[in-house]
Each structure stands twice: as structure tokens, then as C-alpha cells.
């Protein structure tokens, strides 16, 4: 049976992938998301540590090393493609809103 791809990413999921263009561990991921969104999007530890294994299983991210008991992850090419798909989906939604005067 073929593996089913995750459908739509939540904002938190999107930003986790977005910040992993460079290798980071969990706390860095949470801090960077808060920083780049000016606090509008936050990802709690519970959510993050649930997402990371899912993303790893989907091959969107990979474990690049373990340093001082911290797992350091980075986005994969497949993860970058998923981000691009999500960006295109969001742009279509924005375009539709513009068309209906939203």
C-alpha cells in the first residue's frame, strides 16, 4: 500500500519545516519560529516533539546529528517540496480572497 502524504500543513507545521533550512535542535526550532513570526506563531514542546518524529517518518526532515543529548534536524529535499506545495496552496487561497473582495 503506498504511503499517504500529509495533507495540509498547520501554521506550526509549516514554520517547523521553514526554519529547518539550517540544522537545529528542538529549543532552537521553537525560539526561531517565535522570532521570525514576532510571537504570532508559537510551537510548544509537546507539539514539536510530536511533530518531529512524524516529519522524520514522512522524510520531510532528517536527523543530522546528536550533540550533547540534543537531536539536530534539517529539512530534506522532500520537505522543501512539501513547503513549496503549501506555499502555492496558500497563494491560491489569497488569490481567491482577493477575487471575492476579502
UniProtKB/TrEMBL annotation:
Q: One matching Pfam family, short form?
A: PadR
* Domain Transcription regulator PadR N-terminal residues, every copy: 17-85
Family annotation (PANTHER family) = TRANSCRIPTION REGULATOR, PADR-LIKE FAMILY (PTHR43252:SF2), TRANSCRIPTIONAL REGULATOR YQJI (PTHR43252)
Mind telling me what this protein is named? Answer: Helix-turn-helix transcriptional regulator
Amino acid at each position: 500500500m503506498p504511503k499517504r502524504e500529509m495533507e495540509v500543513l498547520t501554521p506550526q507545521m509549516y514554520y517547523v519545516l521553514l526554519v529547518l533550512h539550517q540544522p537545529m535542535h528542538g529549543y532552537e526550532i521553537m525560539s526561531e519560529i517565535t522570532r521570525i513570526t514576532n510571537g504570532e506563531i508559537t510551537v510548544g514542546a509537546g507539539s514539536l516533539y510530536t511533530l518531529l518524529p512524524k516529519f522524520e517518518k514522512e522524510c520531510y526532515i532528517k536527523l543530522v546529528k546528536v550533540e550533547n543529548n540534543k537531536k539536530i534536524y534539517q529539512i530534506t529535499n522532500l520537505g522543501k517540496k512539501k513547503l513549496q506545495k503549501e506555499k502555492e496552496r496558500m497563494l491560491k487561497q489569497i488569490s481567491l480572497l482577493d477575487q471575492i473582495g476579502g
